[in-house]
Amino acid sequence: MNVKIDKAYRYIKRQMIEGVWEPETAINVNEISAKLEISRTPIHKALSKLEQEGFIKIIPQVGVFVKRPDPEEIIERLVVCANLDALMTEFGAYNLTEEEFTYMENTLKKMDDLEISSDEYSLLNIEFHRTIYEASRLEYTISLTKQLWDYLNYVGNPDNLFSQERRKQSQTEHWMIYYTLKERDGKTAKKLMERHMRRVAEAVGVEYQNADFFRHVFN
């Protein structure tokens, strides 16, 4: 991606993921151009990419708006994400190094601390999963999963997804995945990751008042 396009893309996406721009907010291209000191052309190209990823909607002759999350679209992305996560976990089991296992263990120990904020837990959670995925060496799948995680971080509320009660369950699952990976048992690790992602899906489903449908899709 062109440097200027990437700069605009990252800036716009960050505003949405961090909640600076709420759903239905109109995006002013001129303001972004002035803020980033770049022309409108790379901004429009960045917006086209973000539209493809489901973050915004472009209405010709009207404007560009932050897209309100669509529950059906969220379900579809969760289904795809769960399957990709499980696939990369199976492959990662055979490639993880001792240094990576040490890093994962230290990350999990930090996540065990119930005093850290939900945002801090969320970032550590991403690091734990990222280490596994990068070990899979499935470059295209990793790239696609990063886009999905960005979107799911956008639609999911860390305070709801990572409440203290849910963290306890999440940590139990994380440690089980970790020890299974240490045993190089890719098949079991894959199943554990699938189960873990189902629970995440149900948590998002509760947030969008559609938990029953999420359970139906993932079971």
Write the layout of secondary structure elements.
Layout: H1 3-17, H2 29-36, H3 40-52, E1 56-59, E2 63-66, H4 71-92, H5 98-111, H6 118-136, H7 139-155, H8 158-161, H9 164-182, H10 186-207, H11 211-218
Antiparallel strand pairs: 1-2
Helix pairs in contact: 1-3, 4-6, 4-7, 4-10, 5-6, 5-9, 9-10, 10-11
Q: Output the CATH class name of the largest domain.
A: Mainly Alpha
> What fold name goes in the CATH topology slot of the largest domain?
Four Helix Bundle (Hemerythrin (Met), subunit A)
Number of helices: 11
Through-space gap between termini: 38 Å
Helix content: over 70%
User: What Rg do the Cα atoms give?
Assistant: 19 Å
By DSSP, the count of extended strands is 2
Q: What shape does the CA trace take? A: globular
Structural class category:
mainly alpha
Query: Architecture of the largest domain, CATH level 2?
Result: Up-down Bundle
Return the domain count. 2
The average pLDDT score comes to 88
Largest beta sheet: what is the strand line-up?
1-2
Low-confidence stretches: none
Q: What composes the largest sheet? A: 2 strands, antiparallel
Report the portion of residues in β strands: under 5%
Order of helices and strands: HHHEEHHHHHHHH
Within CATH, the superfamily of the largest domain carries the name GntR ligand-binding domain-like
Describe this structure in words.
This protein is mainly α and 219 residues long. The chain has two domains: 3-66, Winged helix-like DNA-binding domain superfamily/Winged helix DNA-binding domain (Arc Repressor Mutant, subunit A, Orthogonal Bundle), CATH 1.10.10.10; 71-218, Four Helix Bundle (Hemerythrin (Met), subunit A). Helices cover 74% and strands 4% of the residues. The protein contains eleven helices and two strands. Strands 1-2 form a two-stranded antiparallel sheet. Strand 1 (56-59) and strand 2 (63-66) form a beta hairpin. Helix 4 (71-92) packs antiparallel against helix 10 (186-207), helix 5 packs antiparallel against helix 6 (118-136) and helix 9 (164-182) runs antiparallel to helix 10 (186-207). The longest helix has 22 residues, at 71-92. It starts with a helix and ends with a helix.
